[in-house]
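Hey, I'm writing a tutorial for new members on how sequence and structure tokens pair up, and I'd like a real worked example in the thread rather than a made-up one. If someone can provide the structure for the chain below, I'll link this post from the tutorial.
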Amino acid sequence: MSNLSPDPVFQLIKSLTRSEKRHFRLFTKRQGATQGLKFLQLFDALDSLEQYDDEKILEQVTSIKKVQLPNLKANLYRQLLASLRIYHTGQNLDIQLQEQLGYARVLYNKGLYQQCLKMLDKVKAAARHAQLQHIALTAIDFEKQIESQYITRSLRGRADQLSDEAVELALHVSQAHTLSNLALRLYGLYLQAGHAKTQEDATRFSAFFRDNLPVVDLTAASFMEKLYYYQAHVWYHYLVQDFKSCYRYAQKWVDLFEDSPEMKYSQPSLYLKGMHNLLAALFNLQYYTKFEQVLQDMERFAADTNRRDTPNTEVLLFLYIYTNKINLYFMRGEFSEGVNLVPDLLRNLEQYELQLDPHRRLIFYFKIASLYFGSGDNHTAIKYLNKIINYTDTNLREDIQCFARILRLIAYYEEGDDYALELQVRSVYRFLGKMNDQQQMQVEIFRFLRNLGKVTPQELRPAFMTLKEKLTSIAENPAERRPFLYLDIISWLESKIERIPVQEVIRRKFRQLK
């Protein structure tokens, strides 16, 4: 894994493509020969380093003194961003419109009010068409300022028209913000605690959702209002494990983009997020044929030559496609085949290290460990589970930390390592003791594994059957279903009872999926 310096200038330079670097050199030279040369020297020095090092920079660029370096880096950072803004203007309508708002301000300052109003009118129309209501509202505010200060005689009834437009847009923007805030807070609850652990959790989440969900007239709502409305519902139903409703609203989310295809290209991250949530709901429902179809749609979008190729979009495509490819292997019970995906997955994890948050990295490690465990390679499964368990911030997805420990315990049992198993039992016991909310599945598995050493070989199969009956009964309770989403312990027990590999059990179940 790379250890890229947190220095922002260095990170930005390392993220540049070859054409972006060429554009920056041309941009810098246009700023003036002497200063441009100094910027280029510093830029080239940073670009040549594998790791950030002040001393090496000063050795390469002898004209720069150590006391000058912080200011020069700050100026270089601003110049890089200015160059990138110009480079990407043609691909980002919001940048173009903000630039035109700047031109309108110049015309206003010059006293060319009619020209300014014409430009603002074009900005407003383009912004509304692209569902960028906040930019349209800024343009209207500027128009109101001009109309209130100068007699432009542009249109009769202009004051009423602008006032009505402003009120309408402000309502749409306000409601979109209210809905996006709700969606974000629900997502925050999920990251903090995972799915609802108890009926009390579900009741609390439901009350929070009802109290914060505004009344929305979907027939009059803007694209973004509908999007955030569906997004909030997806997260709420995901939290309370109502996956049928989650699937319904995720499908509405994706259909919204299908009905406005141009929005796929102007808002690709939101489109991909919708598809990913749809796939997550389908996976939890084990709806295989629809899952495979949606994943193919996502891969077709990835191959679409008309979409914008940006680092942000590429990161999301990597994240979502690989996550769901692994889930596809899980559904099919093809763990051994899924392991072949791991080397390429690890290369991408290293490539996108800066863009991926710890939560997503931990999820990938758990999925990799599950692939190896399902394929029978317990030693490698333990290696990736240790990456989760040894992560310093144990408050991040406490549930994943718990399941990683339980799976590691099972893997040590499969390895036949009695000494390590005894140590892990104590470790899991301490961790479960610190957890605020233990669920029946976790407690039953731990109790079983803790007493496993006392079970004779003749008693082993009946013990597995007893545990399976208990867990099957627990899984029937919707409030207790969450742990089984991460750890298919029942299939593992069936494999021990029937003395066949776990992936064979899951393949048998796969043949019954719709």
